[in-house]
Amino acid sequence: MNSKSQPSPLIQVDAQPSSEPNHAPQTKIAVHNAPTFATAGDVKQWIKTQAQALGFADCGFLSVHHPLFVQQTEHLKQWLAKGYEGQLQFMHNNHHLRAHPEQLVEGAKTIISVRMDYLTQTPTPRAVTDSAYPNQGIIARYARGRDYHKTMRSRLKQLALKIEAMLPEWQHLNIGSEQDFIFRPFSDSAPIFERPIADAAGLGWTGKHTLLINKQAGSFFVLGELFMSLELPDDEPVKEHCGSCSACIDVCPTQAIVAPYELNASACISYLTIEHDGIIDPKYRRAIGNRIFGCDDCQLICPWNRYANITPIEDFAPRHNLDNSSLLELWQWQEAEFMKKTEGSPLRRTGYVNFLRNIAIGLGNAVPNKDIIVQLKTKLGQHNATLDEHITWAIKEQQDKLNNLEP
Predict the structure, then answer these.
(1) Of 141, 146, 137, residue with least CA distance to 355
(2) C-alpha separations of 99 from 65, 118, 138, 229, 239 in Å
(3) Which residues share a beta bridge with 186?
(4) 115 - beta bridge partners?
(5) How many angstroms from the chain centroid is the CA of residue 253?
(6) Per-residue model confidence (pLDDT) at position 189
(7) b/e 32-58 (16+ beta carbons within 10 angstroms → b)
(8) H or E segment at 16?
């Protein structure tokens, strides 16, 4: 808690001479406690301290009436007009809620934006080492443990309950604490401009790859929001520090970052391996390499991630060896095993058959080996024509590479 909001108690000592000789004077101590919270800023600092105690790396504050929402809605419409959304058709919906978030949670006045670090091991600075292990199945680092969305919402609810318990202490501040407390936590679960909110609330700046970057923590963190009925002052955005650097643009395997701050999601490996259903365009398959769920390349190469922090949240710890599994190991998972090992995991989002589709592409890109062809053939005709198409492609890729090895 801010020390300025906790002044030392005023101790008043009244010495009264005793009528009894040789007695020390009687003392009367009156303790006058000054208000613990003198300003709305003190409330924000207290909330920030509680958020950090719950495992959030930082938090910022923004009004639901901030002008960014209307501005970002127009920007989104322009982006959609370029066809960059792929199959993310839901992004065409609920523009009115994106532009007017106060309608999303009736009575909400302020959004608390939080970020949560997720790295469990510090990567090699400014290096994409994932490509150095072509026979290993690479899963984005945020997705190797439990699904963070539940953890995020649960801890945001805990933060809200801590805030609610303090409302009587803040009724002199005219921030709405005398009214019924309304709150609702979100984590990638509603039509909310998550990254722009965090940017405007000072949690970092938007990098050229369109992810948020924090000067002290890089970009390996996830975001969440707590809408609430208290009315607190906005935080200020921070200065951007990308300068002339274009490392993220240059390293993108599929050239999905079409310009600084502009992403063609339909070409992004994270989109292709997680959100895209059906056939992945052959023009992207070699570039996908061994990435079977998401892609970290634009973050791994970013110089600011030399400051990335290790998470205190146990839920991000890799499960089932997902940080060190070969493509062939994962290829041999049966559907029941997939369902068991992905319980409570982000990997569930892609589904079993699309998971195999992604692994098939990885196997096609792997170091040539006759055993890979044998293993690929075991799943031909087992699921659907889409998977068979990718298996056939992978077999041909392997065979062509083997043929090139022959004298």
Answers:
(1) 137
(2) 9, 30, 37, 18, 24
(3) 225
(4) 58, 223
(5) 22
(6) 84
(7) eeeeebbebebbbbbbbebbeebbbbb
(8) strand 10-16
> Virtual CA dihedral for 299, 304, 307, 310, nearest 10 degrees?
-20
Q: What is the pLDDT of residue 230?
A: 98
> What is the predicted pLDDT for the residue at 320?
96
Q: What is the pLDDT of residue 32?
A: 41
Kindly report the number of other CB atoms within 10 A of residue 235's CB atom: 18
Look up tokens 């600084």; give the residue: 260
Cβ contacts of 398 within 8 Å, gap of 6 or more: 363, 364, 366, 368, 369, 372, 373, 376
pLDDT of 7 reads 31
Segment 175-202 shows an average pLDDT of: 97
Instruction: Give the lowest-confidence range in 18-32, 129-143, 306-320, 368-382.
Output: 18-32
Sign of CA dihedral 262, 268, 270, 272: positive
Half-sphere exposure of 302 (CA within 13 A, CB side): 28
Whether the Cβ atoms of residue 249 and residue 257 lie closer than 8 Å to each other: yes
Instruction: Please identify which of the residues 58, 180, 188, 281 carries the catalytic annotation.
Output: 188
User: DSSP character for 240?
Assistant: P
Mean pLDDT of the region 23-51: 72
DSSP 320: T
Distance, CA of 401 to chain centre = 38
Q: Identify whether 235 is a catalytic site residue.
A: no
The predicted model gives 315-324 an average pLDDT of 96
Query: Is residue 328 helix, strand or coil?
Result: helix
Distance CA 321, CA 349 (A): 19
